[in-house]
Design brief:
With 374 residues, the protein is α/β, with parallel strands linked by helices. Helix content is 43%, strand content 15%. The structure holds fe (ii) ion.
Length: 374
Amino acid sequence: MFTKRSSIVLTISCMLVIALLAGCGAGNNTGQGSSNTPASAQTEEPASSSNTEPAQTGGEVNIYTARHYEVDQELYDAFKEQTGITVNVVEGKAPELIERLKREGASSPADLFITVDGGILNTAKTEDILQPIVSDVLDKQVPADLWDKDNQWVGLSTRARVIVYVKDRVDPSQLSTYEDLATDKWKGKVAVRSSTNLYNQSLLASFIEVMGEAEAEAWAAGIAANLAREPEGGDRDQAQAIVSGVGDVAIMNTYYVGRMFASEDAEEVKVAEQVGVFFPNQDTTGTHINISGAGLIKHSKNKDNAIKLLEFLTAPEAQAKISQANFEFPVNAETELPELLKSWGDFKRQDIDFAKYGELNPKAVEIANKVGWK
Ligand SMILES: [Fe+2]
């Protein structure tokens, strides 16, 4: 018989199922950006996960992450081996994970929120789901400019968004700045993915901060006018396009070039061999970088373990693994770089507060729409 009580239980169960499903959009293992990643991979609940019971203390740490790289899991396994602390992982898209953390509040099992964009890390902070991280070890391992200014998140790795060029048609001496790509010199020659992608939105947000709104808009209009084709695909597809003769230069994250070099797909390796990496704006405002980072959840029940994990992930050994597997730049300066990153050399980066990527995101989207960058 369907009693009023069983109806209430059923309703609550349904709400829980819906809540869990809503937070489970996960990326795949292709390394594509979190904002445009198809929700294809299975996600797991933390062993202690429950929306009604507090997590067990000791022996574990629960992570909600928008990163989806195999090396991350390998490091969590290595951490368990070294410390005995189990790392439970929930993968998802960053905005959904933030919504979930807000909804779960004090009953959330999560200890850490990890994502790949400074703007989103700042959103987690402004949504009041984080707390300051206090650790002398982390202070030593991660320079102050790769932390949130109130220590609510700490950087784990960085990536640069650079100019990639076809070596047989472009000499690096022809390249200089992002602004130069928006001049007539490069008409019909620029390949870049859609402005709906967060990587481009954060790039444009950084220009609004660094150059001012009017110049950033002029830049975006110049890029839209210089496109070799209507934006399509991810970063790697832009390298493929220029190698096949659609455009000469691409705007891409450096780590995709590394991943293509290391690919099991011979075609991708061939593409990587034909392109060069150029760090723009070295004599001016510096190259744009973005940051992967971790925030400590306000209601963390395994705070000591969470901080231990962050110390582990930012120590030189783990940093080298992240860099070797995913070609991201380490945050810890003591890290041994892979040969490819060494070959690219040191570079000057934009001097910017990553929070601006979040604060200026709506303006960046508005500008991209206005100038017709699809
Ligand atoms: Fe990516």
